[in-house]
Amino acid sequence: MKKILAAILIAAMILSLAACGGNSTPSTTKADGTTQAASKDDIKLASIAPITGNLAQHGVSIQNAVNLRLKQYNEAGGYQGRKVVVDFYDDQGTAAEAVNVANKIVDGNYIACVGPYTSACGLAIGSLFGEENITLYAVSASHEDFAKQNDMCTTQCAPQSRSREFECDWLWDEGYRKVAYLYLNDDTGNAAQNWFSKFWTAKGGELVLSESFLADQKDFSAVMTKIVSSGVEVISSYANYASAITIIQQARDLGYKGLIVFGGNAQQQEVIDVCGEAAEGVKFISQFSNDYPTEGVKAFVESYEKEYGRKPTQVDYQAYEATNHILQVLDELGPDDTKAIGEKIHNNPKSHSLYGDYPYVNGVPQFPLPIVQIKDGVYCTYK
Fold this sequence. Notes:
Elements: H1 2-14, E1 27-29, E2 43-49, H2 56-75, E3 84-90, H3 95-105, E4 112-114, H4 119-132, E5 135-138, E6 153-155, H5 160-173, E7 178-184, H6 187-203, E8 206-213, H7 221-229, E9 234-238, H8 241-253, E10 259-263, H9 269-275, E11 283-285, H10 295-308, H11 314-333, H12 338-346, E12 348-353, E13 356-361, E14 364-365, E15 371-375, E16 378-381
Helix pairs in contact: 1-3, 1-4, 2-11, 3-4, 5-6, 8-9, 11-12
């Protein structure tokens, strides 16, 4: 009853933002990508991802990365000879549908959940997972409040405060002073804008203009005209990859020749494929670079490219690393006490990651933030 009541209350809060709908039936997937019914000896993970909708490409990345890590784990013997399998649930990238699938997951005998992708979805369902003592391991929730909900909520993403402070420090050190900030009009986008404005103006930088946009906005010509005429040196933007493509194309078409910077959530192959030469030199405040100099990153890139025929991007890395962290704690604690699993993930003094060993503090990873650029048609480390 408490789960049903919680879902009703959460759904009521978000009803004005998103409508329910779609297919919330899980896709049960073996580690090799084929479907099967889980055996009674298998250990079950859930994964929430935007398999359909505007963020579907991120859903593909999440499915690929989770399946790859489980394939590797099971081929190495699994947990004491038992396989770990995953059921994927489609939240369509909306908080309302995330509530629908969350109620199925907490009744599904899962040890943990990889996902959701967005902060909005994670904020809508975090309290429910806390009540049921099941890990909700968000792939890219950068909102400050997500991991603060309870000890079951962990993210594989740096919070907006850290990313935007890092970005402002870098831009200032590079000698830039006049910036325009464009941001997606949602909770995380507004948080990103607030943090950027705070850190940039505190340095004495000029925020020439700051404008929000909708996820499906196609025309940026008016704001780009202002940017070109005002001598802006940097366009910084919190945007999904589809909006990033439009911003790059229209900025270059209208003659903007300055620096363009996005968060790592826009770091998808489609940006290069669609924008082509216009994307050269675009930078990303990221959490992953294919050429980052560690053996873990090198092995991941090679295995991912062999499996899927392309190099991984930030979301692939985040989902892989989240799955990897869950499996490490599973090996240490076993599958029976899901509360203990969640608490250890939330505050883990030493996680063995692709970057080396680093801690998780109150549900937030303490990893490096590489700056990634598009150079010669590929993503690579800038510094």
